């Protein structure tokens, strides 16, 4: 099985090499794509005007940091970007991750981050004004797939560009400093269900949502070309009236009137339990969860693992689960009791972003009619990812 892991890791490393697909007026490149599957997951599927074909990144982890870029043959003034999230082929939506946040980087240094909805159809993003010869889309975060075995694959189904009609572009910004925009939400289109365009060779007319002003659209262009839109003129800015400072008013507290024959009521303070911010306790909790989830075949077990080893540990867990199914013990384990009383879990070292702990002694696994005592002597290495401790390695020291 170790040899199989080495082969799989080598194939994944090869899949990280950038590839290119020509598409009319621009070139599409991607950091990787999942070429091990029987289905075509290459980046060319992003520009074929078909929401049922997808680009699936082929990197390690859940997809954060993977990217797709577009190099334009001429300088373009982009107006909007239409994005199809996830795998919108029949029955495929829950089988892969969808993109939550995308960072858009332009050739001149401008950058903006957009938040996509976890829904099918096309959704639209208004782009920062300015000319560019390239646009790079980088995955920042994802919505995890409902199917646990595919949480290392993130998909996008389509990318559509809208550009301003020549001569109608808004005036460029006067500043030369690269602009960075805070995350904005994408606008879902009126397409509620996955949609296949009737003619994959041409761009269909784009219907914008009712909540946004509808620009005049130019005639439909061939595949790979752009749709032109005329921007609405920006309203003239009204002068901001001067605000007079409000004088500070000292509050007047009237004493409560005394009530004859009564005593001051007793004030009872409610006990507030603050969250445990002790990193040592958090590390020990992760190690305990390792034994509890693994021995009961809990499907969230791989979520305890660091992104660097997630794919390998997920494969091992699924293999272990399948073996138990073949032996007829899977259901027993899912309902088993795990007693860690005799297992001494102690921190070994906790630093900035790295930690280690040991687990020595034994623990008891109880199923109906059976009680098993398992000896243990192991060391765990952990890493801090997005504020949570994750297991990087477990070494048995027997």
* CATH homologous superfamily placement of the largest domain: Galactose-binding domain-like
Uncertain regions spanning at least 5 consecutive residues: 1-23, 190-223, 272-276
Compute the number of strand runs: 18
Number of H- or I-type helical stretches: 4
The name of the CATH architecture of the largest domain is Sandwich
What is the residue-averaged pLDDT?
A: 76
What is the 3D form? elongated
According to CATH, the fold-level topology of the largest domain is: Jelly Rolls
Give, in order, the helices and strands: HEEEEEEEEEEEEEHHHEEEEE
Strand content: 25-35%
Per CATH, the class of the largest domain reads Mainly Beta
As a whole number of angstroms, the C-alpha radius of gyration is: 28 Å
In the sheet with the most strands, the strands line up as 1-2-4-9-6-7-11
- Describe the largest sheet: 7 strands, mixed
Helix content: 10-25%
Distance between the termini: 22 Å
């Amino acid at each position: 099985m170790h040899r199989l892991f080495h082969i799989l890791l080598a194939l994944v490393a090869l899949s990280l090499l950038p590839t290119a697909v020509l598409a009319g007026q621009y070139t599409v490149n991607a950091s990787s794509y999942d070429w091990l599957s029987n289905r075509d997951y290459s980046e060319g599927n992003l520009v074929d005007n078909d929401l049922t074909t997808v680009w699936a990144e082929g990197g390690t982890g859940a997809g954060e940091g993977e990217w797709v870029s577009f190099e334009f043959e001429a300088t373009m003034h982009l107006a909007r970007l239409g994005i199809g999230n996830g795998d919108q082929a029949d029955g495929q939506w829950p089988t892969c991750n969808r993109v939550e946040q995308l960072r858009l980087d332009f050739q001149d240094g401008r950058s903006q981050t957009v938040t996509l909805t976890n829904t099918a159809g096309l959704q639209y993003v208004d782009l920062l004004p300015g000319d560019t010869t390239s646009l790079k889309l980088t995955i920042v975060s994802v919505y995890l797939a409902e199917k646990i075995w595919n949480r290392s694959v993130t998909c996008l189904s389509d990318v559509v560009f809208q550009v301003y009609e020549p001569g109608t572009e808004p005036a460029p910004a006067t500043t030369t400093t690269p602009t960075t925009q805070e995350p904005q939400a994408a606008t879902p289109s009126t397409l509620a269900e996955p949609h296949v365009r009737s003619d994959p060779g041409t761009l269909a007319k784009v219907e914008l949502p009712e909540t946004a002003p509808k620009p005049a659209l130019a005639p439909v262009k061939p595949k790979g070309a752009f749709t032109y839109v005329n921007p609405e003129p920006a309203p003239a800015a009204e002068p901001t009236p001067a605000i007079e400072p409000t004088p500070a008013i000292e509050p007047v507290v009237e004493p409560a009137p005394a009530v004859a024959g009564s005593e001051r009521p007793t004030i009872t303070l409610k006990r507030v339990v603050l969250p445990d911010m002790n990193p040592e306790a958090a590390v020990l909790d992760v190690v305990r969860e390792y034994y509890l989830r693994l021995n009961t075949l809990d499907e969230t077990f791989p979520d305890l693992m660091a992104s660097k080893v997630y794919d390998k540990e997920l494969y091992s867990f699924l293999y272990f689960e399948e073996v138990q199914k073949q032996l007829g013990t899977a259901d027993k384990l899912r309902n088993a009791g795990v007693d860690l009383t005799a297992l001494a879990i102690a921190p070994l070292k906790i630093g900035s972003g790295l930690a280690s702990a040991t687990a020595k002694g034994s623990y008891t696994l109880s199923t109906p009619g059976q009680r098993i005592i398992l000896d243990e002597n192991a060391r765990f290495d952990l890493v801090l990812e997005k504020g949570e401790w994750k297991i990087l390695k477990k070494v048995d020291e027997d």
